[in-house]
Amino acid sequence: xxxxxxxxKNNALVMDDRLKRMMEETDRVAGMGRTSRRIxxxxxxxxxxxNGDQQRVNSTGAMNVVIVRSSRISRTYYEGVxxxxxxxxxxxxxxxxxxxxxxxxxxxRMSNKCASCAMNVKGSGNTGTGRACRxxxxxxxxxxxxxxxxxxxxxxxxxxxxxxxxxxxxxxAYAKFLKANDLMLGALVTQMYFDEDSxxxxxxxxxxxxxxxxxxDAAVDAYESEEAQQAVEMTVYQADTxxxxxxxxxxxxxxxxxxxxxxxxxxxxxxxxxxxxxxDEDEVEEVAPPKKRAxxxxxxxxxxxxSTLAAWDS
Length: 314
Hints:
10-stranded mixed beta sheet; 314 residues
């Protein structure tokens, strides 16, 4: 199936710019207003999720992306014990980690302020160690070699906070490192890779290279796109909404990663949110758009289908 799609996409006639105006007809037949694209880290693998369904998987443990937008750090509280077979929306949530959003029903609000909420106390989680109310943030990313497609990536607290150890950085430490060196997230190819010692999916980040001029222009276009803006928005649906439509994914840091090779025994990380999110809760600055040096067409940025497919195993 993948090979067939590749042949179609490499066909110059099929991809002719004049025919893109006809994509509306395809959307109408498919029965959707827009396509939702996410990269999930569930189970310690990168998974391409389109309109709620898994399409492809990357099990190499690393993926190169360009981060074009980021959200503020948000919080969500799910009542009861997490059950992957019974996905439900959170009971309370905050898009700024300061107070419940206006969209949270009054009867569901756990507190007027996040800082004084009982669900923010260490030990309030189901395991008795972490917090019941979890931190997360959303990124809008493009896969290296395919700057025309924007994905949403949601990071759990373990991938945001924490000290730098052996040059391994979570998102907050990585952003601080770049800022200290006058570099921008949106002007670099960033490699995200899994922590092999973590029992639950946890990412580290490192800079790979600077973007070239064509890529920079495409990064600016991606930053300004509606898809990137929607990717970083926090949207919570009520209980009568189909689980596949939930914008907040609660199982990213709950499903154990694939078995690793035997190593020196260490204390397993609790399934609840790791305590390292208490070490530093500074806000990760929103991604600033890369600056264009000159207005120019971005046709040269469009990647071959080979480089797009190379990011995925199947």
